[in-house]
Design brief:
The chain is an alpha/beta fold. The chain has helices spanning 7-17, 26-39, 57-66, 75-83, 100-109, 118-128, 166-176, 194-207, 236-248, 264-267, 300-304, 391-395, and strands at 21-25, 45-50, 69-72, 91-94, 112-115, 134-139, 161-162, 180-184, 216-218, 257-260, 271-282, 287-291, 310-312, 320-326, 334-342, 349-353, 373-378, 381-386.
Length: 403
């Protein structure tokens, strides 16, 4: 049975910790990780949690306890991972358009590194030659993902070195005798079709013969998770089967480790965002439900046009009516337009589901609003894992020079 928190539990948490509030259900993360482990049990696969989805240190520690490694998109994410107890060899740092000094810092930390530009590959070769293993992030020119903003492998994407520049890559690698141990691709997020990953594998298989010291190939992440009731999760068992078949049939790839970078797949469904209704506003076009939050706390609906299921947990038996759920900041921040909800009243608690990935992580203090608290539910008990911002947090890094 799928792990989920009940409306009664969420209501109790709202009363105990206040709102807005992010809640993460640890056992749901465990359930998702178990799906991955089972699906790929027949292959030499290692999972690196893409922590850009949610970097709370307590979440990182919990995911480490499940047996996962961690994938990082910045040097500070790598430092957070080490702080959370991951060993350097369990940390993967994939650079993107960064200064070479950040790569130098990653080398000092001793973590795995993927380089995504010819410029930094050249600099890396000049400084480290064959002395430090490194991976190359390639752009496979494959269009995939649920939204152009989260598609990263197509021919207009900034990510990775285009595969059609292979000659330049090989020339640079040979000139400096660079120790290339990993080839990496990532086509996007919200991918439902297992064949997208098979296409990526085929691209990599064509490149493997050019790199004699490979230890792994990295297929990225982006596994689809359901946001709507009729959505389907990616068939992870089918993907595991197809990956095994592909690698078993390719002699040069059989001994390579396969890396995946699941982020949203692990933490999206574990997350709940609880808000409270401030104001009801009747208009000729709609009835607005204004909650005590905005895109400063949950930007995905405005940024990606993403859908989050919303429920009124204060009146679960109320008559269904149509509402537009909006925030309280000075911009248009519509969470849902013309959405059916059980009758909403001022003071009711509304819950946004699938809020674990890129929810708090993309939050801000826009309008000088305070960031919400975060709570982890584990073994049936709530644990405060980030306190709510207070007034001092808005001022702590400011330097007042004018009296």
């Amino acid at each position: 049975m799928s792990q989920q928190l009940s409306p009664e539990q969420l209501t109790a948490l709202a009363k105990e910790f206040g709102t807005p509030l992010y809640v993460y259900h640890a056992e749901k993360i465990k359930e998702q990780y178990a799906k991955l482990a089972k699906a790929f049990s027949g292959s030499n696969v290692v999972f690196f949690y893409a922590c850009k989805a949610l970097t709370n240190v307590s979440v990182l520690k919990y995911i480490r306890s499940l047996g996962a490694n961690v994938d990082c998109s910045s040097i500070n994410e790598a430092k957070l991972a080490l702080h959370a107890g991951f060993l350097p060899q369990q940390v993967l740092y994939t650079s993107n358009g960064i200064g070479f000094d950040e790569i130098e810092e990653a080398v000092k930390l001793g973590v795995n590194i993927n380089i995504d530009s010819l410029s930094n590959l050249e600099k890396f070769g000049k400084k480290y030659g064959h002395n430090y293993p490194v991976g190359i992030r390639l752009r496979p020119n494959i269009m995939a993902g649920g939204n152009l903003k989260i598609s990263t492998g197509h021919d207009k994407s900034k990510f990775g070195i285009p595969v059609d520049q292979l000659d330049k890559i090989i020339e640079t690698v040979n000139r400096y005798s660079i120790l290339i141990t990993d080839l990496h691709i990532h086509t996007g997020s919200d991918i439902k079709d297992a064949d997208v990953f098979v296409k990526g594998i085929e691209v990599l298989f064509d490149l493997i013969p050019h790199f004699k010291e490979l230890r792994s190939v990295d297929l990225g992440g982006g596994f689809k998770v359901p946001y709507k009731k009729d959505d389907e999760e990616i068939d992870i068992d089918l993907l595991g089967k197809k990956v095994k078949e592909a690698f078993d049939s390719h002699p040069q790839a059989r001994n390579l480790q396969i890396w995946f970078e699941p982020g949203k797949f692990l933490v999206s469904e574990c997350g709940y965002f609880i808000t409270q209704v401030n104001v009801m506003k009747e208009t000729s076009a709609t009835t607005f439900v204004s909650v005590n939050s905005g895109f400063n706390h949950l930007i995905r609906p405005m940024f990606y046009d993403s859908y989050h299921r919303i429920e009124n947990i204060s009146n679960p038996q109320g008559e269904s009516k149509r509402y537009s759920v909006v925030g309280n900041i000075c911009e248009t921040d519509t969470f849902a337009w013309d959405r059916k909800l059980h009758e909403v009243r001022e003071g009711d608690h509304l819950v946004f589901y699938n809020a674990g990935a890129y929810g708090f992580e993309m939050s801000s203090n826009f309008n000088s609003r305070l960031k919400p608290a975060e709570v982890m539910m584990k073994d049936g008990k709530p644990h405060l894992i980030r306190r709510r911002d207070n007034w001092d947090d808005l001022l702590k890094n400011q330097v007042e020079v004018i009296s």
